[in-house]
Design goal:
It is a single chain. The chain contains 2 helices and 8 strands. An 8-stranded antiparallel beta barrel has the order 1-2-3-4-5-6-7-8. It has helices at about 5-40, 50-55; strands spanning about 75-80, 85-95, 100-105, 110-120, 125-135, 140-150, 160-170, 175-190. It is globular, with a radius of gyration of 19 Å. It is α+β, with helices and mostly antiparallel strands and about 190 residues long. The longest helix is centred in the N-terminal third of the chain and has 37 residues, at about 5-40. It has one domain (about 5-190): Lipocalin (Beta Barrel), CATH 2.40.128.120. Helix content is about 20%, strand content about 45%.
Length: about 190
C-alpha cells in the first residue's frame, strides 16, 4: 500500500506529464493546420470565416505610455501567401525574448504556439518558432520551424515582415518548405 506522500507525488507527476502532452499537441496542431492551408493553397478567409473587424483593425494611438517603438506587446497579425490569407493570430512578444500566439484555428483542433525572438536592428526583429509535427493518426513525425523577420513601424503601432516555414522529419532531414509568407500586424492596445 502506498503512503499518502507517495500517492500525492505520483498524482502530481501524472498531472505534469498530461499537461506536457497537451502543450505538445496544441503547438503541433496549430502549425499542422497552417501547413495544410499552405499546402492546399486554401485561404482562411474563404466562406467569410474571419470577422471584418479583425482584418481591418487599426492601432489608435502611439506606442504604450510614451515608450519607444518596441516589439514587446500584443499584436493582431494577418499572414498571407501569394495574396491569400493562410493564418490569423493574436501574438504576444514578451520582454524576456519569448513569444506566444493563438491563431484562427478551431480550438478543438488546438491553436496555441510559441517561439523565441531577438532584436537584430533598430526596428527589426527575428523570431524562431518551432513545433512538433504529427501524421493524420497522431504519430510524431518531425518538426516545423518558422523563421520570421519583421520590422516595427517608427510609431510602434504596426509591423510588416516575412515568414519561411521548414518541415523536417525525425532524422532532421528537410522534407518540405514554404517560403515568402507576408506578415502584417497592428498593435492591440487598451483603447476603451
Amino acid at each position: 500500500m502506498l503512503g499518502n506522500n507517495i500517492r500525492v507525488r505520483l498524482l502530481v507527476l501524472l498531472a505534469a506529464v498530461a499537461c506536457c502532452n497537451l502543450l505538445v499537441q496544441s503547438a503541433a496542431a496549430c502549425d499542422k493546420n497552417k501547413l495544410a492551408r499552405l499546402a492546399s493553397g486554401s485561404s482562411l478567409t474563404r466562406e467569410g470565416k474571419i470577422p471584418s473587424q479583425i482584418l481591418e483593425q487599426k492601432a489608435t494611438s502611439a506606442a504604450p505610455m510614451g515608450r519607444p517603438a518596441s516589439m514587446v506587446g500584443l499584436w493582431n497579425v494577418v499572414d498571407t501567401n501569394q495574396g491569400q490569407v493562410v493564418d490569423l493570430f493574436f501574438d504576444t512578444w514578451n520582454a524576456d525574448g519569448n513569444e506566444f500566439f493563438i491563431d484562427g484555428t478551431n480550438p478543438a483542433a488546438d491553436n496555441v504556439c510559441q517561439g523565441t525572438w531577438e532584436q537584430v536592428g533598430a526596428h527589426t526583429y527575428k523570431l524562431k518558432h518551432i513545433s512538433w509535427t504529427f501524421d493524420d493518426s497522431g504519430n510524431l513525425n518531425g518538426t516545423a520551424i518558422f523563421h520570421d523577420v519583421v520590422t516595427v513601424s517608427r510609431d510602434g503601432n504596426s509591423y510588416t515582415g516575412t515568414e519561411n516555414v521548414y518541415i523536417y522529419d525525425l532524422n532532421g532531414n528537410l522534407i518540405q518548405e514554404y517560403l515568402g509568407d507576408q506578415l502584417q500586424a497592428t498593435r492591440i492596445m487598451v483603447d476603451f
